[in-house]
Amino acid sequence: MLHHSSLSVIAATIAILAPLINVHAATVSSTVAQTFLGVGGSGAWWPHDLFNFPDNVRQNLSSLLFSESGLGLSSYRYNLGGGGVDVSNPVRAPQTPYVSPGVYNFSADPQGVYFLQQASNLGVPGITMFINSAPAPLTSNKASCAGQFVNGSGAAYATYMVDVAQHWREAGINISYISPMNEPDNSFGPIPCGQEGMLVEPNQRAEVVSSLWNELNSRGLSSAIGILADETSSTGVAPTEYPVWLPEVVDMVAHLVHHAYDFPSDANYLAYVNAAHAASNGKTTWMSEICCSLGTPAGTGRGYSQGFDPTINNALMFAGLVFQSFVIGGEAHYDFWTLVSNAIGCEPLSSSTCATTPNSNGWTDGMIYYDPDYATNGNHELYLVKHFWTYKHFGNFVKPGTQRNPVTGSDATEYTLVVSNSTTYSVIVMNPNTSTSTLSLTFPETVCGTTGFRTSASEDFATVAAATGSGSTWSLSLSATSLTTYIFDRKAC
Ligand SMILES: *[C@@H]1O[C@H](CO)[C@@H](O)[C@H](O)[C@H]1NC(C)=O
Ligand SMILES: *[C@@H]1O[C@H](CO)[C@@H](O)[C@H](O)[C@H]1NC(C)=O
Ligand SMILES: *[C@@H]1O[C@H](CO)[C@@H](O)[C@H](O)[C@H]1NC(C)=O
Ligand SMILES: *[C@@H]1O[C@H](CO)[C@@H](O)[C@H](O)[C@H]1NC(C)=O
Ligand SMILES: *[C@@H]1O[C@H](CO)[C@@H](O)[C@H](O)[C@H]1NC(C)=O
Ligand SMILES: *[C@@H]1O[C@H](CO)[C@@H](O)[C@H](O)[C@H]1NC(C)=O
């Protein structure tokens, strides 16, 4: 039994420690902001290799990407190949079903089709077909890179795209978006090229979009398949080009999609979104491709660069990019780039720490890595980096149809994302700092904290204790350098 004076000492100690515990307070708005459309990534170019892996590994990979027990992605970007003519890296040279006008070989690209089918089988609701280059016979240099879209070829290109999409839809794969020009600002030349690409000048983009829309419309598919454009690489460049092509076709575009390889500041990100809204009468914008940055959890040092950093530090830097899109930009959809990568930069069979230690030879462009030498050494292991576990928070809880409840108050930061549906609030919150802190969150109604999941240096989406509290005010414990999701039922405990 504690002596009375001991209790006083404990009380005094708590009073002294309290300011050090670092409590931040914020309020959840009852008025919702955007409705989410999806969280996903691209099927380029890993299907070429992973198709060769044993079937149990391919199944495991599909489940890691597309099931709730894995990332739970709600968006998958299938790369319709251009045939890889004059692309030197075979992994980045997907076959095309195009043979000649109206003639197709739908057995081509079995690798890409396999994982497209897996995404569909596992119920991914949003499937996009995206294209880096038209089939070689249609481009200016009859290659799959280093050339340009040819004026007047829009109708032929559109017939091809819609024939392919319709073929897979009839096979039960619900392709619901087509992106006809991925990074049209780059031809990816010179030959021999490292990947497919086709320059589409801003003054050519309206033809690409209107030809595709006319073809979809003539087949009664214009509401079933939306057009995504124009996937320009940088948020700084895209708005300077919108005036050239967008006014003519704005009503034919479903969503304005962009990449973010300029790694904009928060102010510049918001400026991009505002410019996109102004140029399009308020179309939703999507971030549809990003990878390859080093940097700290709090976001300093971002920028396109080589270097493999599989640690929690880079995974939180990357999570910060997702928060930037959703919270600062108010965007509805986020796609990472290749999801699966062989750019690990070390030899996993000769070093047990290869997959978990930063190196300067690799690239941070995957959530799951594989051995680039698998074909000769038979290593079919899948290596999950911290990015897998942090992205799982978004993939599992930012579901199509959920909405964002903004967080306000002087302590509110962009790293608190509150997502709601009719029964639940999911609070995804990041602590980029090296000290523990507590978030005191007030909801617009009585809620009940039920559970939590945390990713940190030592935890991978580990189940943690629910937030504590009662009524509408709850304390969320944020351990150092972590991403946590706290779940709340929208009712009393
Ligand atoms: C179709 O493509 C597959 C895969 O590359 C190939 O094996 C087959 O020979 C092609 N069929 C025709 C008729 O070209
Ligand atoms: C196909 O996708 C569209 C758009 O995402 C959706 O509205 C439709 O219900 C889906 N159809 C099927 C059969 O899943
Ligand atoms: C292609 O068409 C666009 C739009 O009419 C035009 O501005 C551009 O000059 C043309 N380009 C070439 C290479 O003819
Ligand atoms: C799937 O791959 C992960 C990552 O390598 C591994 O931890 C897990 O055991 C595998 N699951 C199955 C069923 O093979
Ligand atoms: C609401 O979200 C929670 C957490 O993701 C999920 O378990 C639940 O099924 C969702 N409810 C509805 C009605 O969609
Ligand atoms: C992290 O530190 C920054 C700068 O001191 C502070 O503004 C922020 O509120 C802290 N975040 C958390 C979650 O503790």
Structural account:
The chain has two domains: 21-32 and 405-489, Immunoglobulin-like, CATH 2.60.40; 37-397, TIM Barrel (Alpha-Beta Barrel). Helix content is 27%, strand content 23%. It has eleven helices and 26 strands. It has helices at residues 4-17, 47-50, 55-66, 110-121, 154-170, 205-218, 238-249, 266-279, 312-328, 374-377, 386-397, and strands at 23-28, 38-43, 75-79, 98-100, 103-104, 126-130, 147-148, 175-179, 198-199, 226-232, 255-259, 285-289, 333-335, 340-341, 368-369, 383-384, 403-404, 407-408, 416-420, 424-431, 437-442, 448-455, 462-464, 468-470, 473-478, 482-489. The strands form six sheets. An eight-stranded parallel β-sheet has the order 12-11-10-8-6-3-2-13. Mean pLDDT is 96; it is low at 1-16. The chain binds 2-acetamido-2-deoxy-beta-D-glucopyranose (6 copies). One 2-acetamido-2-deoxy-beta-D-glucopyranose (NAG) binds at residues 151, 203-204. Keywords: Hydrolase, Signal.
CATH architecture of the largest domain: Alpha-Beta Barrel
Total separate domains: 2
- Text of the CATH class of the largest domain: Alpha Beta
Assembly state: single chain
Overall body shape: globular
Q: Could you tell me which ligands this complex binds, including any ions or cofactors?
A: 2-acetamido-2-deoxy-beta-D-glucopyranose
Number of helices: 11
Q: How much of the sequence is in beta strands?
A: 15-25%
User: Terminal Cα separation, in Å?
Assistant: 33 Å
Mean pLDDT: 96
Largest sheet: 8 strands, parallel
Approximately how much helix is present in the residues?
A: 25-40%
What would CATH call the homologous superfamily of the largest domain? Glycosidases
The largest sheet has its strands arranged as 12-11-10-8-6-3-2-13
- Please count the beta strands (DSSP E, at least 2 residues each): 26
Q: What are the segments in which pLDDT stays under 50 over at least 5 consecutive residues?
A: 1-16
> The CATH topology of the largest domain, please?
TIM Barrel
